[in-house]
Amino acid sequence: MKNQYVADINDFRKYGLIRSLLKHNSLRCGVFWMLTDRDSSRDGELVAYLKRPEKNAHLDQELFHKLRALVHDFEDRTVARVRQEGVLPRSQYFEELIPDDASLRASIFRKGLLHLRDSDLVFFDPDNGLEIRSRRRGQKLSSKYLYLDEVQATFQEGHSLLIYQHFPRIERSTYIQNRIGQLRDRLGRQSICTFSSGYVCFLLVMQSHHQTELLGNIEQFKAQWGSHFAVAIH
Question: If one looks up domain 3-233 in CATH, what number appears?
């Protein structure tokens, strides 16, 4: 996650998903931003949707207006402002930058899990998603990835997981199945739900004791946001 992405169209969809998962229950969310420094790319400029409330605001009126205020009123597109404005209910956040250095990263990761220990659902928001073979931990730009042993450690603490995943330029259904296979190799045959939208996918790995509270909300989310997401339970 980079601050320059805050309030773009993917953020709108992302927060809409999380807010939907937290409806009608008492689940608490921990947001592990996996924050990285701004760069010179133009990523995050996709905010034209905020000029079309007639097309988008009905999906989540409160969310839409909070994000529009971040861009047009506060002019403060930062994760700190997301926290301050209460964009997500019953949520706490870990906002430290993730380094490339492997030993420093391990220390920060442990600190983040401790900070979010009271959360039921932990959302990981890496720039790119789950690890890839060509980018070992400790290499330059490894901070853009979430590593599978980190996923495993978090799940073993009793948290359900929601993971951001950017799609590479390959066939998507096969790619999703491969990622699900990697997660199950680490976590066992857990119930996994995928939410695909544009160039991104969110992978929800549910602890058995959270399934009842989450599954009903997933059906409601499909009805509300179905034009923006393809939803599947695996």
Answer: 3.40.50
